[in-house]
Amino acid sequence: MADETTQDPTQQTDETAQQARPEDQDAPRAAEAQPDAPEGEPAEEADDSTGEPAAEGAEHPDTILAAERLADLQRAQADLVNYRNRMERLRAQDKDNTIAGVVEALIPVLDDIHMARQAGDLEGGPFAAIATKLEGVLERYGVESIGEVGETFDPNHHEALLHTEGDLPEGATETTVVQVLQPGFRVNKRIVRAARVAVADPS
């Protein structure tokens, strides 16, 4: 019967450990090859959201957004002010147009009052009080009577129906109103009807 060689179990375990996981033996050498970070040099800070370094002097997104919102608010306020001003102008124009329409309808009556006053028919009669009240109401609504004797003729305010040679006021050097045939009317600088007048030219 042949002799059998008996192997020491301890020796077998050591050989197995040396053959197993050779990479574990290289780990200490790799750690020694990696240099340590220099002391005293802080690590570069990274941006929280992107991982990139934060640029110096860059505005924060919240600051930019706040500036945009402020600009939008200022534009909206300016638009509101312009809208209110435009509406006020339109309301004033509508009011003037309405009053001018009433005056145009009353012009025949106002002409009769003027003729009666020129003829002296209003003196001491009840009709004088009615005429005065009507003229007072129109005045409160911005209606003005235009055309006075002695005024320099202005084609924007006067319509010359007659030309005469005399009756010029003393010292007049321009064409002058010498008689008001029918008064004109104006509503807040808007001419409803020009005054119809007789004028005289200087010699």
TrEMBL record:
<keyword id="KW-0143">Chaperone</keyword>
<dbReference type="Pfam" id="PF01025">
    <property type="entry name" value="GrpE"/>
</dbReference>
<comment type="similarity">
    <text>Belongs to the GrpE family.</text>
</comment>
<keyword id="KW-0346">Stress response</keyword>
<dbReference type="InterPro" id="IPR013805">
    <property type="entry name" value="GrpE_CC"/>
</dbReference>
<dbReference type="GO" id="GO:0051087">
    <property type="term" value="F:protein-folding chaperone binding"/>
</dbReference>
<comment type="subunit">
    <text>Homodimer.</text>
</comment>
<feature type="compositionally biased region" description="Acidic residues">
    <location>
        <begin position="38"/>
        <end position="50"/>
    </location>
</feature>
<dbReference type="GO" id="GO:0005737">
    <property type="term" value="C:cytoplasm"/>
</dbReference>
<dbReference type="GO" id="GO:0000774">
    <property type="term" value="F:adenyl-nucleotide exchange factor activity"/>
</dbReference>
<comment type="function">
    <text>Participates actively in the response to hyperosmotic and heat shock by preventing the aggregation of stress-denatured proteins, in association with DnaK and GrpE. It is the nucleotide exchange factor for DnaK and may function as a thermosensor. Unfolded proteins bind initially to DnaJ; upon interaction with the DnaJ-bound protein, DnaK hydrolyzes its bound ATP, resulting in the formation of a stable complex. GrpE releases ADP from DnaK; ATP binding to DnaK triggers the release of the substrate protein, thus completing the reaction cycle.</text>
</comment>
<protein>
    <recommendedName>
        <fullName>Protein GrpE</fullName>
    </recommendedName>
</protein>
<dbReference type="GO" id="GO:0051082">
    <property type="term" value="F:unfolded protein binding"/>
</dbReference>
<dbReference type="InterPro" id="IPR000740">
    <property type="entry name" value="GrpE"/>
</dbReference>
<feature type="region of interest" description="Disordered">
    <location>
        <begin position="1"/>
        <end position="60"/>
    </location>
</feature>
<dbReference type="InterPro" id="IPR009012">
    <property type="entry name" value="GrpE_head"/>
</dbReference>
<keyword id="KW-0963">Cytoplasm</keyword>
<dbReference type="GO" id="GO:0006457">
    <property type="term" value="P:protein folding"/>
</dbReference>
<dbReference type="GO" id="GO:0042803">
    <property type="term" value="F:protein homodimerization activity"/>
</dbReference>
<feature type="compositionally biased region" description="Low complexity">
    <location>
        <begin position="7"/>
        <end position="20"/>
    </location>
</feature>
